[in-house]
Amino acid sequence: MAVVKADAYGHGVDRVLPVLRGLVEWLAVANFQEARHVRALAPGLPVLILGPALPEERSWIAAEGFVPVVSNFEEAAAFAACARSGPVAVHLAVDTGMGRVGVCESGALALAAQIQALSGVRVTGLGSHFPSADEDDDFTRRQALRFDALARAMREQRLVDGPVHIANSAGMIGFPDSARELFRAGLALYGCSPRPEFQSALKPVLTWKTRVTLVREVAAGDGISYGSTFVAKEPMKVATLAVGYADGYRRHLSGRGAEVLVGGRRCSVLGRVTMDQIMVDVSRVEGVCAGTEVVLLGAQGGEALSVSELAERAGTIPWDLFTGIGSRVERQAAG
Q: Among 190, 203, 226, 245, which one carries the catalytic annotation?
C-alpha cells in the first residue's frame, strides 16, 4: 500500500502516482478530498482513507467506493445506512498503542461482531499502527504479538474478510514479519529510512533546488539578515537565494549550521532564514552568479545533503520537512 497522503509527502502526488502504476496494490490517503484526487490519477486501485470521515462525507465515500477506516459502532452504522448497491467495505482500526484512532484491543472482538450484524457494511480489513517502530523495539515486538493474536481470533471467528495490516515504513524495515498481508509504505517509498541504519539500502527520490538571485561583497563587521545575528569577521562573498520559510525552508534552521550545495561544495547559511530568501557564504566557490543552481536537499558533485541531516538541524523530523515544502515550489519529474 503506497501512502500518498499530503501530496505524496510533499513530493507531488501528480508526479508520483504515474511512477507507481503496476508496482502497488493499494493507495492510502488521509481524507476524502485526497481520495478523490488520487482516484482521478489512478482509477484502477482501491483507496483506503486513513482518517475518520466527517459525517457529511460518508454518503459520498460509500457511493464512490472508497474504503473508510472505522473505530466504533456509530461510524460503521452510519456507513451501513449509506449502502445502496451492496454493503460498504470498511477496515476496522484497532488502537494497540498509538492513541489516535481505533477501538481499544479489549473491545475489538465485540465491536467486530456488532458490525458484522449490520447488513449494510462488511469488514474487509483490520489495521493498526506502530507508534515507536523507529525507536522502541521491545514495545513494538510486544505490540505486534498482541495484534497478531487479535487478528488470528478475528479470522477464527470470521469477523474480518480481507487484509491485516499494521506495518508502516519503520515496521516493514525493522520488523518485516509484522507486514502480514499488506504493508503501508510511507516515508520509505520516497527513499528515506525512518531507521537510519537502513538508509544505505534506499535512494532518496527528491532533490530540492533553488537559484542564486544576487551575489554581493560584504565587509568585515557587516551584519546579515534580521537582527544581525551573523556578523562577518572578514570580507566575504555572499549569495542571496530564492527560498525562505514560506517555501518550507524552516526558520528553525537559522544559526543551526545549515548548509546548501553550490558548485558541489557545502556553503553555510548565514543569519536568519527570511520568508522568501536566505543568504549563504560562497567565498570559496568560483563563478557564482545570478542564476547559479543551488541544491537544498540532494546531491551535487561529490557532496550530498540528506533530509535527515536537515531535519536534525531544524529540530524536527523528515516527514515534517517533506510535507512542509510549499506550494510555490515547482514539482518536476526527473529526466
A: 226
